[in-house]
UniProtKB/TrEMBL annotation:
<dbReference type="InterPro" id="IPR001087">
    <property type="entry name" value="GDSL"/>
</dbReference>
<comment type="similarity">
    <text>Belongs to the 'GDSL' lipolytic enzyme family.</text>
</comment>
<dbReference type="GO" id="GO:0016788">
    <property type="term" value="F:hydrolase activity, acting on ester bonds"/>
</dbReference>
<protein>
    <submittedName>
        <fullName>Uncharacterized protein</fullName>
    </submittedName>
</protein>
<dbReference type="InterPro" id="IPR035669">
    <property type="entry name" value="SGNH_plant_lipase-like"/>
</dbReference>
<dbReference type="Pfam" id="PF00657">
    <property type="entry name" value="Lipase_GDSL"/>
</dbReference>
<dbReference type="InterPro" id="IPR036514">
    <property type="entry name" value="SGNH_hydro_sf"/>
</dbReference>
<keyword id="KW-0378">Hydrolase</keyword>
<feature type="signal peptide">
    <location>
        <begin position="1"/>
        <end position="23"/>
    </location>
</feature>
<keyword id="KW-0732">Signal</keyword>
<keyword id="KW-0325">Glycoprotein</keyword>
Amino acid sequence: MAISKITLAIIVLLLGFTEKLSALSSSCNFPAVFNFGDSNSDTGAISAAIGEVPPPNGVAFFGRSAGRHSDGRLIIDFITENLTLPYLTPYLDSVGANYRHGANFATGGSCIRPTLACFSPFHLGTQVSQFIHFKTRTLSLYNQTNGKTPFCKEVFARPKDFSKALYTLDIGQNDLAIGFQNMTEEQLKATIPLIIENFTIALKLLYKEGARFFSIHNTGPTGCLPYLLKAFPAIPRDPYGCLKPLNNVAIEFNKQLKNKITQLKKELPSSFFTYVDVYSAKYNLITKAKALGFIDPFDYCCVGAIGRGMGCGKTIFLNGTELYSSSCQNRKNFISWDGIHYTETANMLVANRILDGSISDPPLPTQKACKLTKK
């Protein structure tokens, strides 16, 4: 029986569709992840370079501090887990370091812009400089030994992996939070173009070094952080209780960031950008806290001595008496861990939405982020 032209055409279309679907269904198998950011993704840099992040940070999952500002895993930890890669070693941690599958350049307190007001000297530009040095030294060692030493085989990233790795960036919260303490909403908004410019310079430098696959996380609803809510009790709130002016700034920052990423997709050939709307995922936790099983979204688990304003895990002595911070027993019921950072449970919920692609543009799961094609 002869096949009609229409039937044949349909078969051809279906075969083409099947081939595309098959291509998208396979994972990217990123061999490494290189991360840049602040304390939201710092896996131990600030702890190694400046001072230990003490318990009870990290105890819920790692059984120890592990250098993370949370009771357990961070979003970046869930990302590497999903990619079946080890947790990232901080670039600044020299003890037991293993960079075979990437490195973490994120440092707690970091900003995008270099400014003395920032909590950390390791701003984004410095982190990128550290990466360039790291890559240069890695390639040099490989060239000297032909990659045959145990260190090259087991500890360092392979030269070919730098262009195949996933580059994640989650930074900007401190630029806005610190600026808000000294500026009006409009003044802070006026600084956004310069912040974005610094961010763009960093991305272009990474691209020049061979980075091709980028996952860009926008900034979260900074106006919902409990420590800022307590610091600015007179600032207008939105319907859910967050600082309205500061969230307005975060929204504007994210808008300009997304526009810049759209522009860079055209400017940088062979680049593959995923823009991740972390703001919507975190704000969703705040607005739907009760339905998700959380208590007051502005309460936090790890607190200091009453009235002392100590950070999580810090101790002080008052009249010979040691005062110490402690964490709650029901950590999974809290969104905020310490008034600034999220609990492992909250991080996991946000990470799940990143990994399944539901808050990403384009909406592809992280494992398939390398399947993007130029239009």
